[in-house]
Amino acid sequence: MSKYIYTLQLKVRDYECDIQGVVNNSVYQNYLEHARHEFLGSIGNNFKALHEQGIDAMVSRVEVDYKSSLTSGDDFEVRLYIEREGIKLIFHEDIYRVSDGKLCAKGKVFTICLVNGRLSKGEVFYELFAKYF
């Protein structure tokens, strides 16, 4: 059984590539962020609605290991799963090229949660993602 709880398929656009013809390293973080936002939407929520309730999930650290380059026109999937570590919610996000199933990047995004501007113990994460822990 797969550990992944959500998958988002995307396609590399020409302007995301650098002079070497591969996706620029910084663009991978955009892919990871977009997948997190889409995942939240898939469970019936979004960051704007949370913010309006005084809840702000914020990235505290990002780790990305680049394994194989994506190039213009490649279809790829961002697959994610989550875990808790103290007050942090960690998004494990892996990017796979669709054509050959090759792992292109492994991301680990650490997030914290502020409630009304104050660091919380992450209770909101339990409420939002209880069925995934």
Summarize the structure.
The chain is built from three helices and six strands, in the order E-H-H-E-E-E-E-E-H. With 133 residues, it is α+β, with helices and mostly antiparallel strands. The protein has a single domain, classed as Thiol Ester Dehydrase, Chain A, CATH 3.10.129.10.
Which terms summarize this structure?
23% helix; alpha+beta; six-stranded antiparallel sheet; Thiol Ester Dehydrase, Chain A; 6 strands; 133 residues; 3 helices
If you had to describe this structure to a student in words, what would you say it looks like?
It is a single chain. The chain has helices at residues 25-42, 47-52, 123-129; strands spanning 6-11, 55-66, 75-85, 88-97, 103-115, 118-119. It is of the alpha+beta class and 133 residues long. The chain has a single domain (6-132), classed as Thiol Ester Dehydrase, Chain A (Roll), CATH 3.10.129.10. Strands 1, 2, 3, 4, 5 and 6 form a six-stranded antiparallel beta sheet that branches. A hairpin with a 2-residue loop joins strand 3 (75-85) and strand 4 (88-97).
State the distance separating the first and last CA atoms.
Answer: 15 Å
As a percent range, the share of strand residues is 35-45%
What structural class do the secondary elements suggest? alpha+beta
Main pleated sheet: 6 strands, antiparallel
| CATH class categorisation | Alpha Beta
How confident is the prediction overall: mean pLDDT? Answer: 95
Low-confidence stretches: none
Number of helices: 3
Spatial shape: elongated
CATH superfamily: Hotdog Thioesterase
Along the chain, the helix and strand elements come as EHHEEEEEH
Nearest-angstrom radius of gyration? Answer: 16 Å
As an assembly, this protein is single chain
In total, how many domains does the architecture comprise?
1
CATH topology: Thiol Ester Dehydrase, Chain A
Share of helical residues: 10-25%
CATH architecture: Roll
Q: Can you count the beta strands?
A: 6
